[in-house]
Amino acid sequence: MNSPTDSSTEVVFQADDAKMPALDLLQRALALRATDIHVDPAEDDYRVRMRIDGLLEEYCRLGEDVAQHLIHQLKILADQDIADPFHVHEGRLKLPTDNWTCQARLTTSPVEGGEAVCLRLHSNEALMRSLDDLGASPANRQALDEMLRRGAGLILVTGPTGAGKTTTVYAMLRELELRQGHLNMVTIEDPVEIRAPFLRQLSVDEQHGLTIAKGLRTMLRMDPDVVFVGEIRDAETAETAMRAASSGKYVFSSLHTRDVASTVTALRDLGITDWSLSANLTGLVSQRLVRRLCQTCRRAQAVADADRQFFQDHGVEPPDQIYQAAGCDLCRNRGYLGRIGVFESIVNHGDLAAAIIAGASEEALRQQMRSGGTLGLVADGLLKVAAGITSLAEVKQMHWL
User: Fold this and answer.
1) 3-class SS at 253?
2) CA–CA distance from 376 to each of 215, 313, 365 (Å)?
3) Which of 35, 122, 169, 304 is the most buried (most CB within 10 A)?
4) d(CA 352, CA 152)
5) How, if at all, do strands 226-229 and 250-255 pair?
6) Shortest CA distance to 225 belongs to which of 286, 260, 189, 183?
7) Domain 128-396: assigned CATH number
8) What is the share, in percent, of the chain residues with pLDDT greater than 70?
9) Confidence class of residue 5 from pLDDT cuts 50, 70 and 90?
10) Is the CB of residue 18 less than 8 Å from the CB of residue 24?
11) In contact, 6 and 57? CB cutoff 8 Å
12) Longest Cα–Cα distance in the chain
């Protein structure tokens, strides 16, 4: 086995390690705040990588025998067939005690050279995260509060994969539970990301005919007050969600769209009428995640003229100074430690609702939101740059805008 590429990282496995190297790997990943672990066959060995603060980093190399032993242990913990490496398998790890601070989902797949493994880790802290912990600005926080006070309709949280959409929805659901209590909340997800005691959760099982659309119809027969549909993927799911919202249900879901205005276009493309959108949409949230600057080692710098113009172009007053990443032992010389959300949020009422029902174009809707004071994703990120929370480089690297 080769050593990790990062000299500050320890070797994962030694001959005298614990009997369960799979659990040892999980513990090390959690200590590094990793959200994903990848184990992939290379030419002569297996490569272990971890996604930390959104970036995939190589952790170490494993010999084939050690890697196979690790993969077998993971598959056993997930109740997968270790004798079948020829098909894709998915499952949730059954960890041996209640002391674990995470939930882990395992996906294994045959690839060229062997079998690849992906572990998605969900910290239990994410389940307990409040809306105040997400990083929403006062204006965005106020919009989220107003959405939750409306009591019915469809709330959509959008963005690319890995943008923190599920965490935001769970924080909103938990907030509803804390405010009102005694709500029947049901979800249909593919798969269930985080197990929550205050939710009745269904997992998609297409092998047995349970799709998101069918699961949603099933949930609506379970006397729900609040429904969470993991993702709107097709016209049937969109139409059913809209019908549920129009019947007085609180419906939460997610979409892969660039920003709030493009979400309206996506729903139109799925066949939802402008009248239904105007009447049944309660609120729209678009979000990304950016890395937090390490507050111990960040370095202040003057704002260059081009950067000052960048702030002004997005309607944000340029600060006197901004901060850039440096590096220290605390952040493993990365200059960043953790991540924070960047948001664009708006409640659908008044001028926006009128513009939607009038068939306003995506760009016209976007311009109306800006003129009404709703900041875009880049502008919200720049506010965090001005506050010293993240770097300008992070905001400029936000993708799919």
Assistant:
1) strand
2) 34, 12, 12
3) 169
4) 18
5) parallel
6) 183
7) 3.40.50.300
8) 94
9) very low
10) yes
11) yes
12) 70
List of residues 6+ apart from 349 with CB closer than 8 A:
none
Please report the pLDDT score of residue 369 as a whole number.
95
Q: Give residue limits of the domains in the chain.
A: 21-125, 128-396
Measured distance between the N- and C-terminal CA atoms of the chain, rounded to whole angstroms: 42
Contact 155, 115 (CB under 8 A): no
Compute the Cα dihedral for 193, 164, 38, 88 and give only its sign. Answer: positive
CA triplet 160, 203, 205: central angle to 5 degrees?
Answer: 105
Structure tokens at 192: 């269930």
For residue 131, report the phi and psi dihedrals to the nearest 5 degrees: -60, -30
Mean of the pLDDT values across residues 94-119? Answer: 88
Interatomic CA distance for residues 364 and 148, integer angstroms: 27
DSSP lists the bridge partners of residue 120 as 36, 105
CA distance 310 to 295: 24
- State the virtual CA torsion across 225, 231, 233, 236 in degrees, nearest 10: -10
Long-range CB contacts (within 8 A, 24+) of 209-214: 212/188, 212/237, 213/237, 213/240
Where do the H-state alpha helices sit in 283-349? 305-313
CB 75 within 8 A of CB 108: yes
Cα(62)–Cα(74) distance, integer angstroms:
15
pLDDT given for residue 198 in this prediction: 86
Q: Which residue has the tokens 């930390």?
A: 52
pLDDT class for 232, splitting at 50, 70, 90? very high
Reference 249, options 270, 284, 221; nearest CA is: 221
- 43-96 pLDDT, tens digit each: 899 999 999 999 999 999 999 999 999 999 999 999 999 989 899 998 889 887
> Which tokens hold the place of 200?
């009745």
Write out the H or E segment, with its range, that includes residue 215.
helix 212-219
Q: Which CATH number fits domain 21-125: 3.40.50.1860, 3.40.190.10, 3.30.450.90, 1.10.8.590?
A: 3.30.450.90
What is the residue type of 137? S
Nearby residues of 264 by Cβ (< 8 Å), 6 or more positions away:
277, 284, 356, 362, 365
